[in-house]
Amino acid sequence: MKFNRTVFTGAMAICIAAILWGLDGVVLTPRLYSLDIGLVVFIFHALPFLIMNIFMYRQYRYLKNFTLGDVLLFFLLSLFGGAVGTLAIVKALFLVNFKALTIVVLLQKLQPVFAITLAALLLGEKLKRNFLLWSALAIVAGYFLTFGLHVPDMETHSRTALAAAFSLLAAFSFGSSTVFSKKVLRKFSFFTATFYRYAFTSLIMLMYVLSTGMLKHIPEINGFQWMIFAIIGITTGSGAIFLYYFGLTRIRAMLATICELCFPVSAIFFDYFVNDRTLTPIQWISAAVLIFAILKLSLEKEQEASRI
Question: What CA–CA distance (Å, rounded) separates 10 from 8?
Fold first, then answer.
C-alpha cells in the first residue's frame, strides 16, 4: 500500500487532538472545580479568542461575505459544540469531584447515536436497520459503565446519575455540532472555522455570564487557576480544535472515527497514572462494548455515505 502523507498527517492531527481532550477532561478542567461553571466556559473560549486576534485578525475580512445562512451555521455550531456542550461536560466533571472522570469522558462517545438520529430527523437521512441494534447496545453499555451491577442511587446526595445525565447532554450537543462542523468546513478553511467558532461561542457565553452576574468574579481567580486556563486555551482548547479541523479536512470520517478513539483510551490512561483510579471489571467490559458499538455505528454510516 502506498504511503499517503496527507492521510497520515490528518490522522495524526486528530489523534493528538483526541489525546489532548483526554488530558483536559481528566487532568486540567477538574482543577477549576471551585469556580462558577459559566465563568469557566466563558474564559475557556474568550481567552483563546483574544490570543487568536493577535495572529488571525485577517479572518475578519470574511465577515462582509457572510450570508445569513453562514451566521446561523456558526451560531448553531457555537451554541451546541461550544456553549451547551462545554457547559454540560464541565458540569459533569465538577459533579464527580475528581471521581469517575473516565466514566464521564467515555459517555461522551455516545455522540454518534445522537448525530445519526438528528440527521434522520432534521435532514431526512434514512436509518440503517442495524442502527437500533448498535445504539441500544451502546446505551446499555453506557448504563453498566456508569452504575456497574448496582441499582442507580437517585438520592440527592448521589452525583453519579446527575453527572451521567450531563455527559449525555454533552454527547447530544457535540453530536449535533458534528453536522454543523462538516458543513462549515465545506465552505471555510479550518483557520476560519476555528476563529469564528470561538468568536461566536465567546459572545454567547459573554451574554450568559452578564445575565448571571458572574463576570464580576473574574478578579477572584487565583494565579494557579489562570495558569490552568492558559494551558487549556493553548493546548486542549483552541489548539486541539485547530488540529481536529486540520485533520478532518484531510481524511474521511471513517478514519477520523478510529483516530478519535484515542480520546477515551487516553482518558483511562491519565485517570490511572494521575489520579490512581481504574475501572472495575464490569466497567472495562462495558467500555469495550461501548466503543465497539459506537465504532460500528460510525463505520456503517460512513460506508452508506460512500455508496451514495
Answer: 5
**Residue 105 grid coordinates:** 469522558
Cβ density class 147-176: b for 16+ within 10 Å, e for less: beeeeeeeeeeebbeebbbbbbbbbbbbbb
pLDDT for res 307: 47
pTM of the model: 0.78
**Mind listing the pLDDT tens digit for each residue in 212-269?**
999 899 999 999 999 999 998 888 887 888 888 888 778 776 667 677 777 777 888 8
Domains identified in the chain, total number: 1
**275 vs 159, 233, 269, CA distance in Å?**
19, 22, 10
Containing structural domain, residue 170: 5-307
pLDDT at 226: 94
